[in-house]
Write a structure and sequence with these properties.
By secondary structure, the chain is of the alpha/beta class. It has ten helices and nine strands. A seven-stranded mixed beta sheet has the order 5-4-1-6-8-7-9, with helices on both faces. Helix 3 packs antiparallel against helix 5. It is globular, with a radius of gyration of 17 Å.
Protein backbone atom coordinates (compact mmCIF):
# COMPACT_ATOMS: atom_id res chain seq x y z
CA UNK A 1 0.00 0.00 0.00
CA UNK A 2 1.27 3.43 -0.92
CA UNK A 3 0.86 5.94 1.91
CA UNK A 4 0.88 9.57 0.80
CA UNK A 5 0.51 12.75 2.84
CA UNK A 6 -1.36 15.51 1.05
CA UNK A 7 -1.00 19.12 2.13
CA UNK A 8 -3.96 21.36 1.34
CA UNK A 9 -2.50 24.80 0.69
CA UNK A 10 -3.37 27.99 -1.14
CA UNK A 11 -2.35 31.62 -0.99
CA UNK A 12 -5.86 33.05 -0.66
CA UNK A 13 -6.48 32.73 3.07
CA UNK A 14 -9.13 35.23 4.19
CA UNK A 15 -7.48 35.80 7.58
CA UNK A 16 -3.79 35.77 6.64
CA UNK A 17 -3.27 35.86 2.85
CA UNK A 18 -0.07 34.18 1.71
CA UNK A 19 0.47 32.54 5.10
CA UNK A 20 1.77 29.22 3.74
CA UNK A 21 4.83 30.89 2.22
CA UNK A 22 5.51 33.35 5.04
CA UNK A 23 8.95 33.18 6.60
CA UNK A 24 9.42 31.22 9.80
CA UNK A 25 12.94 31.61 11.14
CA UNK A 26 14.53 31.51 7.70
CA UNK A 27 12.21 29.14 5.81
CA UNK A 28 8.68 29.36 4.34
CA UNK A 29 5.94 27.83 6.47
CA UNK A 30 5.33 25.13 3.86
CA UNK A 31 9.01 24.19 3.89
CA UNK A 32 8.84 23.79 7.66
CA UNK A 33 5.86 21.45 7.28
CA UNK A 34 7.36 19.44 4.42
CA UNK A 35 10.65 19.06 6.30
CA UNK A 36 8.76 17.63 9.25
CA UNK A 37 6.75 15.23 7.09
CA UNK A 38 9.98 14.04 5.49
CA UNK A 39 11.03 12.83 8.95
CA UNK A 40 8.07 10.44 9.13
CA UNK A 41 8.99 6.77 8.86
CA UNK A 42 5.59 5.61 7.56
CA UNK A 43 5.01 8.07 4.72
CA UNK A 44 5.99 7.01 1.19
CA UNK A 45 5.50 10.38 -0.48
CA UNK A 46 4.10 13.90 -0.10
CA UNK A 47 1.97 15.98 -2.45
CA UNK A 48 0.95 19.62 -2.19
CA UNK A 49 -2.69 19.99 -3.29
CA UNK A 50 -3.19 23.59 -4.36
CA UNK A 51 -5.62 25.36 -6.67
CA UNK A 52 -5.53 26.45 -10.28
CA UNK A 53 -5.97 30.06 -9.19
CA UNK A 54 -3.36 32.49 -10.51
CA UNK A 55 -2.20 33.35 -7.00
CA UNK A 56 -1.23 29.74 -6.40
CA UNK A 57 1.36 29.84 -9.17
CA UNK A 58 3.67 30.82 -6.32
CA UNK A 59 2.95 27.59 -4.46
CA UNK A 60 3.56 25.49 -7.56
CA UNK A 61 6.86 27.28 -8.21
CA UNK A 62 7.95 26.82 -4.61
CA UNK A 63 6.98 23.12 -4.57
CA UNK A 64 8.96 22.43 -7.73
CA UNK A 65 11.98 24.27 -6.35
CA UNK A 66 11.72 22.21 -3.14
CA UNK A 67 11.33 18.92 -5.01
CA UNK A 68 7.80 18.29 -3.73
CA UNK A 69 5.12 16.86 -6.06
CA UNK A 70 2.29 19.33 -6.61
CA UNK A 71 -1.23 18.92 -7.96
CA UNK A 72 -3.50 21.81 -8.92
CA UNK A 73 -7.28 21.52 -8.83
CA UNK A 74 -10.45 23.36 -7.85
CA UNK A 75 -10.09 26.29 -5.47
CA UNK A 76 -13.51 25.75 -3.85
CA UNK A 77 -14.03 21.99 -4.21
CA UNK A 78 -11.20 20.97 -1.90
CA UNK A 79 -12.53 17.41 -1.60
CA UNK A 80 -12.20 16.80 -5.34
CA UNK A 81 -8.83 18.49 -5.41
CA UNK A 82 -7.49 16.16 -2.73
CA UNK A 83 -9.01 13.08 -4.37
CA UNK A 84 -7.44 14.01 -7.71
CA UNK A 85 -4.10 14.72 -6.06
CA UNK A 86 -4.06 11.21 -4.62
CA UNK A 87 -5.09 9.69 -7.94
CA UNK A 88 -2.17 11.56 -9.46
CA UNK A 89 0.13 10.08 -6.83
CA UNK A 90 -1.32 6.56 -6.99
CA UNK A 91 -2.09 6.58 -3.27
CA UNK A 92 -3.80 3.77 -1.42
CA UNK A 93 -3.89 5.54 1.93
CA UNK A 94 -4.40 9.26 2.49
CA UNK A 95 -2.68 11.14 5.29
CA UNK A 96 -4.62 14.39 5.28
CA UNK A 97 -2.66 17.44 6.41
CA UNK A 98 -3.53 21.13 6.13
CA UNK A 99 -0.92 23.69 5.15
CA UNK A 100 -1.31 25.69 8.35
CA UNK A 101 0.56 23.21 10.58
CA UNK A 102 4.28 24.13 10.53
CA UNK A 103 4.70 22.69 14.06
CA UNK A 104 3.25 19.27 13.23
CA UNK A 105 5.09 16.53 15.12
CA UNK A 106 6.37 13.70 12.85
CA UNK A 107 5.86 11.23 15.71
CA UNK A 108 2.16 12.12 15.85
CA UNK A 109 1.83 11.49 12.11
CA UNK A 110 3.56 8.12 12.34
CA UNK A 111 1.40 7.18 15.33
CA UNK A 112 -1.77 7.98 13.35
CA UNK A 113 -0.63 5.82 10.44
CA UNK A 114 0.35 2.96 12.72
CA UNK A 115 -2.98 3.25 14.54
CA UNK A 116 -4.83 3.03 11.25
CA UNK A 117 -2.85 0.01 10.07
CA UNK A 118 -3.14 -1.83 13.39
CA UNK A 119 -6.91 -1.52 13.75
CA UNK A 120 -9.96 -2.68 11.83
CA UNK A 121 -11.04 0.85 11.03
CA UNK A 122 -11.80 3.29 8.22
CA UNK A 123 -10.36 6.42 9.84
CA UNK A 124 -7.68 7.12 12.45
CA UNK A 125 -7.44 10.74 13.52
CA UNK A 126 -6.84 13.12 16.41
CA UNK A 127 -9.12 15.95 15.27
CA UNK A 128 -12.59 15.33 16.71
CA UNK A 129 -12.05 14.76 20.42
CA UNK A 130 -9.97 17.65 21.78
CA UNK A 131 -6.77 16.53 23.49
CA UNK A 132 -3.87 17.36 21.18
CA UNK A 133 -2.82 20.99 20.69
CA UNK A 134 -4.57 22.71 17.80
CA UNK A 135 -2.41 22.56 14.69
CA UNK A 136 -1.09 19.04 15.27
CA UNK A 137 -3.95 17.52 13.29
CA UNK A 138 -3.57 14.33 11.26
CA UNK A 139 -6.19 12.10 9.63
CA UNK A 140 -5.65 8.76 7.90
CA UNK A 141 -8.10 6.89 5.65
CA UNK A 142 -8.29 4.97 2.38
CA UNK A 143 -8.22 6.77 -0.94
CA UNK A 144 -11.12 4.66 -2.22
CA UNK A 145 -13.34 5.77 0.67
CA UNK A 146 -12.64 9.43 -0.07
CA UNK A 147 -13.28 8.83 -3.78
CA UNK A 148 -16.71 7.42 -2.97
CA UNK A 149 -17.61 10.47 -0.90
CA UNK A 150 -16.46 12.78 -3.70
CA UNK A 151 -18.54 10.86 -6.24
CA UNK A 152 -21.78 10.81 -4.24
CA UNK A 153 -21.99 13.77 -1.84
CA UNK A 154 -22.76 17.31 -3.05
CA UNK A 155 -22.99 19.02 0.36
CA UNK A 156 -20.95 22.23 0.11
CA UNK A 157 -19.51 21.84 3.62
CA UNK A 158 -18.30 18.34 2.71
CA UNK A 159 -16.76 19.62 -0.52
CA UNK A 160 -14.85 22.27 1.46
CA UNK A 161 -13.92 20.19 4.52
CA UNK A 162 -12.44 17.06 2.98
CA UNK A 163 -13.09 14.42 5.64
CA UNK A 164 -16.18 15.93 7.29
CA UNK A 165 -18.53 13.26 5.91
CA UNK A 166 -16.71 10.49 7.78
CA UNK A 167 -17.29 12.10 11.16
CA UNK A 168 -20.90 13.07 10.49
CA UNK A 169 -21.74 9.47 9.57
CA UNK A 170 -20.30 7.28 12.34
CA UNK A 171 -22.74 4.47 11.47
CA UNK A 172 -21.00 4.11 8.10
CA UNK A 173 -17.36 4.45 9.15
CA UNK A 174 -15.30 2.85 11.89
CA UNK A 175 -13.31 5.68 13.43
CA UNK A 176 -10.46 5.44 15.91
CA UNK A 177 -10.24 8.74 17.78
CA UNK A 178 -6.68 9.24 19.02
CA UNK A 179 -6.14 10.91 22.37
CA UNK A 180 -2.92 12.56 23.42
CA UNK A 181 -1.08 11.07 26.40
CA UNK A 182 -1.82 12.91 29.63
CA UNK A 183 1.50 14.77 29.50
CA UNK A 184 0.73 15.94 25.96
CA UNK A 185 -2.85 17.09 26.43
CA UNK A 186 -3.22 20.78 25.61
CA UNK A 187 -6.34 21.23 23.47
CA UNK A 188 -6.50 24.99 24.07
CA UNK A 189 -2.96 25.64 22.82
CA UNK A 190 -2.82 27.04 19.28
CA UNK A 191 0.06 25.76 17.15
CA UNK A 192 -1.51 26.41 13.74
CA UNK A 193 -1.04 29.33 11.38
CA UNK A 194 -4.24 31.25 10.69
CA UNK A 195 -3.70 34.74 12.13
CA UNK A 196 -0.85 37.21 12.39
CA UNK A 197 -0.72 36.41 16.11
CA UNK A 198 -0.21 32.75 15.24
CA UNK A 199 2.69 33.72 12.99
CA UNK A 200 4.31 35.68 15.81
CA UNK A 201 3.88 32.75 18.20
CA UNK A 202 5.29 30.18 15.75
CA UNK A 203 8.26 32.37 14.86
CA UNK A 204 9.13 32.77 18.53
CA UNK A 205 8.82 29.03 19.14
CA UNK A 206 11.26 28.27 16.32
CA UNK A 207 13.57 31.06 17.44
CA UNK A 208 13.78 29.61 20.95
CA UNK A 209 13.74 25.87 20.25
CA UNK A 210 15.55 25.33 16.95
CA UNK A 211 19.03 26.40 18.19
CA UNK A 212 18.95 23.85 21.02
CA UNK A 213 16.84 21.03 19.55
CA UNK A 214 17.22 21.34 15.78
CA UNK A 215 14.32 21.98 13.37
CA UNK A 216 12.29 18.89 14.24
CA UNK A 217 11.58 19.49 17.92
CA UNK A 218 8.36 17.79 18.99
CA UNK A 219 5.19 18.80 20.74
CA UNK A 220 6.71 17.91 24.11
CA UNK A 221 9.43 20.53 23.73
CA UNK A 222 6.82 23.13 22.80
CA UNK A 223 4.68 22.32 25.83
CA UNK A 224 7.71 22.58 28.09
CA UNK A 225 8.60 25.96 26.59
CA UNK A 226 5.06 27.29 27.06
CA UNK A 227 5.00 26.04 30.65
CA UNK A 228 8.19 27.99 31.33
CA UNK A 229 6.90 31.11 29.55
CA UNK A 230 3.07 31.34 29.80
CA UNK A 231 3.12 34.74 28.10
CA UNK A 232 4.10 32.95 24.89
CA UNK A 233 0.79 31.10 24.60
CA UNK A 234 -1.08 34.32 25.40
CA UNK A 235 0.06 35.81 22.07
CA UNK A 236 -2.61 33.94 20.11
CA UNK A 237 -4.85 32.52 22.83
CA UNK A 238 -7.74 34.80 21.82
CA UNK A 239 -7.80 33.54 18.22
CA UNK A 240 -10.62 31.15 17.32
CA UNK A 241 -11.41 28.79 14.45
CA UNK A 242 -14.42 28.91 12.14
CA UNK A 243 -16.66 25.87 12.57
CA UNK A 244 -17.18 23.55 9.60
CA UNK A 245 -20.92 24.24 9.81
Amino acid sequence: MKIVASIEARMGSSRLPGKVLMDIHGKPALARLVDRLRQCRRIDDIVVATSTGKGDDLIEAWAKSYDVPVYRGSEDDVLQRVVDAHRYMGSDIVVEITGDCPLLDPETVDLAIETFLANDCDVAANVRIPSYPQGTDVQVFRTKDLEKVAATIDDLAVREHVSLYFYENPSLYRIVHMLAPRSGQAPDLRLQLDYSEDLEFIRRVYEQLEPAHGPFFGTGAILKLVAQDPALAAINAHCVEKAAR
